[in-house]
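Batch job 17 of 40 flagged for manual review because the log was empty.
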Amino acid sequence: MSELKASENNESVNPADHLRKLNDQIALEKMAIEQLKKEISKVIIGQGEMIDSLIIALLTDGHVLLEGLPGLAKTLTVKTLSQAMSLDFSRIQFTPDLLPADVTGTMIYQQKSESFAVRKGPLFASFILADEINRAPAKVQSALLEAMQERQVTIGEESFKLPDPFLVMATQNPIEQEGTYNLPEAQKDRFMMKVSVGYPSPAEEALIIRSKIQGSEAEKVKKALTKKDILRLKSLVKEVYLDEKIEKYIVDIINETRNPSIPALQDLAPYISYGSSPRGGINLALASKARAFMEGRSFVTPDDIKVMSVKVLNHRIGLTYEAEVDELNAEDIIHKIVQYVEVP
């Protein structure tokens, strides 16, 4: 509980003083995040945007949908992140013959005791990589996404809580769509962010090739954060100040994705079939708080909203056929909306 809330009976508490103290505390805790990134960089070269997105999701109880071609270190990144915190990691390869029980677990009959026992599935880990989530049928996707939302799994008649922290990173290949089951829009909405993973820069790729050719073993990843540290940091992120004017800024952006009303944006209306859900606004606020924390600030700025808006909203906007014809994507629309919505 923040000092501000803890002092309901003390009217002399100065919000500015509280923010200054919080700022000092965040400046110290930011060093822990920097150490975490340093450990990850021992194994992962580049991919800073993906790493930052995973840390932001971790600090806000969110999940990340990654879209990128194979071989871009998606699996290695989340595995390294789990190693840097000594937490369990599970990789689930989604295939057309996968069953919900293969993910969540099932009841197994034990002949000796003539009774059923619970066998937990790979979902019971702190870090989950759902590889090529669109390869599995809707029932399997739903089983995973329900666990993401409820943070518990029911096996037989018993419910089991999932660990805290619990982070799902799902991947999908943007090229190969044959034999895939596209995620319904309502299920995509469960992901805090959708991040497009690109190729490394020429300099980064040279380092990657050199390290593999030389056969040099990566430095051993050391434990940078504990489970207790993560829970403390999550609590601190919640205290980051979000001004009412910034809240209105978020609401204005969300509303423009649904029904463009600003004159400069009205030409976008034919391209949008539906806009962001209320969950988009909530996640944009949470992600912006986490970004402010990672920048060492105790308050959210409009720049935080601008930076996070594409990642948080690009999978929450439906496009019409006209947008496809004019080669316009969700990111283009969001960039234009952020450009014209009045900044507080």
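Reviewer: the log was empty due to a logging misconfiguration, but the result itself is present. The chain has 14 helices and eleven strands. Unflagging and moving on to job 18.
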